């Protein structure tokens, strides 16, 4: 299992990216990590000898967070992100991880790593933590802004295979993100996708409203990239806003600080549930390899968790399963 | 100011609808309320004489919460909701309020009350409580599922006039709900709407992400009805899920209950901010009258607040301002 890591992508690159990678290399000796980026910047971060399952692949350019994705990927062929993608394309790595520019990573997946045969548009998928801890995989969360009904069905296939192979769910329940649970609800896209999903061999359970996502009433939630992105960021923004308000309420006086001290252990597990760092990264599904997007503000813990997630995907051989099932349709 | 109230719509109809209306009639003697519905069900709820500013308009039919909206409005001409709409259409009332079937109320607004001249599609608008308490008016939240760019500009006009006339904001800031803040982000719809909004005379501040809505960085947030509905329900669902988890954490032991008792006053104002009952209803903008949608589970407090909101809209004469400004374009 060879995983290429864009050591230069993300707010805390290269320091915490390299630290997280070294932690993971020590924890899982069965993986080989390739740190891609400016070797002059990476080498000083390694104390002592390079572990035997880590190597450095020099790449002199960097794609910045605000660069226009397609232009950047086309022009910066020697950037850490594109070189990592080339390693996957050329079979020198099985997976890549980047916490850099999201748009550029999706473009790298599409143009460098390459689409899976039979897939029209890859989808960005992420596990959303639910109350019971089982999570919902939502996709597409922003890879493809104007989706067609057939593409939503492909997302459902990709998500179902992932949940079944990687998470071991049998017959994962597929929901369609919609404005109501009744059959004829929605816009033109969801109405057409509903009919296609119902006619498919997937375990389609019907429409799901965004207010019920955290209740875990489906395992795979399908949506177009625009609506999915709006939903995900509304969940994240609301949770973070409430957590901030709570923190202020606990900090108001000595007495409320005492209450905070009493509550801290009870709220810690809750906070952990809501914390993106615990949940690894987002996945670009439908490309020829495992491509994982770490959060832009990923620290060493987040990177180690993204590597754990990538390792699980590689162990399950999910990309091969997807390629086989999609080409059979 | 004559306000027709659908006394039979909502989970707690007619009891709490009538109670809320009577409370409002006592609080604001300058309004006249028309309770529309089955008089045999309404009359027993009134203790003593009917207040001088309340009357009952008998309507024998009821539109149920699960009825198909267009069919129900067309067939049930004697339903409390449709009769309330007719009172507005015929000039016998200036506004209507219903906590009943949302789709049917939008249809009643469109087909019975009637579209404002120059408006292609009315929009459902709602104030979303923000951290600083100023609120964001988001629209459309579900009246029109497949919007055109020009319609998004009309929503922006309607919302701006409302915030300026009713809430007294000067030059309200208009944001476009999108997946990123940069100019060229989004789907075909938002890209086209962006250009139109920028060319308009509105105070357009650019794209706004759903994660930033609660930070109040705009006064009017424009979106298509599908995306808006997804965003609103994601905010509501996340807030309610977190509140439930918190409640459980406070109820875990005697000690955590003590912490809860310490925190209760600090959290009460926060809870109030998040409570739909405090914020009145949603408004159907772009029709010939003030049409307010109360939450399905509205109690007496929610109805009284919806009446307060309707009264404010009538005092500001916002419908006339909208009609004048839209026809000038």
From TrEMBL, chains A, B:
Subunit: Homodimer. Probably interacts with PlsY.
What PANTHER family does this protein map onto? FATTY ACID/PHOSPHOLIPID SYNTHESIS PROTEIN PLSX (PTHR30100), PHOSPHATE ACYLTRANSFERASE (PTHR30100:SF1)
Where does it localize? Answer: Cytoplasm
What functional role does this protein have? Catalyzes the reversible formation of acyl-phosphate (acyl-PO(4)) from acyl-[acyl-carrier-protein] (acyl-ACP). This enzyme utilizes acyl-ACP as fatty acyl donor, but not acyl-CoA.
What EC number(s) is this enzyme filed under?
2.3.1.274
**HAMAP family in the cross-refs:** PlsX
Catalysed reactions, as listed in the record: a fatty acyl-[ACP] + phosphate = an acyl phosphate + holo-[ACP]
Q: What is this protein called?
A: Phosphate acyltransferase
Highest taxon in the source lineage: Bacteria
Pathway assignment reads:
Lipid metabolism; phospholipid metabolism
Q: Name one GO molecular function term.
A: phosphate:acyl-[acyl carrier protein] acyltransferase activity
| Keyword Lipid biosynthesis belongs to the record | yes
Task: State the GO CC annotations.
Answer: cytoplasm
Q: State the encoding gene.
A: plsX
Q: What InterPro entries is this protein classified in?
A: FA_synthesis (IPR003664), Phospholipid_synth_PlsX-like (IPR012281)
The protein's UniProt keywords, in alphabetical order, are: Cytoplasm, Lipid biosynthesis, Lipid metabolism, Phospholipid biosynthesis, Phospholipid metabolism, Transferase
Q: Which GO terms describe its biological process?
A: fatty acid biosynthetic process; phospholipid biosynthetic process
* Family in the record: Belongs to the PlsX family.
């Amino acid at each position: 299992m060879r995983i290429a890591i864009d050591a230069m992508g993300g707010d805390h690159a290269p320091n915490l990216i390299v630290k997280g990678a070294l932690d993971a290399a020590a924890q899982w000796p069965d993986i080989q990590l390739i740190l891609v980026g400016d070797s002059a910047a990476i080498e000083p971060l390694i104390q002592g000898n390079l572990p035997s399952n880590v190597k450095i692949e020099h790449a002199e350019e960097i794609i910045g967070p605000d660069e226009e994705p397609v232009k950047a990927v086309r022009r910066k062929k020697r950037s850490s992100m594109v070189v990592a993608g080339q390693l996957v394309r050329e079979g020198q790595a099985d997976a890549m991880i980047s916490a850099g520019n999201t748009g550029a990573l999706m473009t790298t997946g599409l143009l460098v790593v390459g689409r899976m045969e039979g897939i029209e548009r890859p989808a960005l998928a992420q596990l959303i933590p639910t109350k019971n801890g089982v999570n919902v995989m939502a996709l597409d969360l922003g890879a493809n802004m104007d989706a067609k009904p057939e593409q939503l069905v492909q997302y459902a296939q990709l998500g179902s295979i992932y949940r079944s192979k990687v998470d071991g769910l049998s017959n994962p329940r597929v929901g369609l993100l919609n404005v109501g649970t009744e059959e004829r609800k929605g816009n033109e896209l969801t109405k057409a996708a509903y009919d296609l999903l119902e006619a498919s061999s997937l375990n389609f359970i019907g429409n799901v409203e965004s207010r019920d996502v955290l209740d875990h009433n489906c395992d795979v939630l399908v949506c177009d990239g625009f609506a999915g992105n709006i939903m995900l960021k509304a969940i994240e923004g609301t949770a973070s806003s409430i957590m901030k308000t709570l923190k202020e309420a606990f900090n108001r006086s000595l007495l409320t600080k005492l209450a905070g001290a009493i509550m801290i252990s009870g709220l810690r597990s809750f906070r952990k549930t809501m914390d993106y760092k615990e949940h690894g990264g987002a996945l670009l599904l439908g490309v020829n390899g495992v491509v994982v997007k770490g959060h832009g503000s990923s620290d060493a813990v987040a990177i180690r968790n993204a590597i754990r997630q990538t390792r699980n995907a590689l162990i399950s051989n999910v990309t091969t399963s997807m390629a086989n099932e999609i080409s059979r349709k």
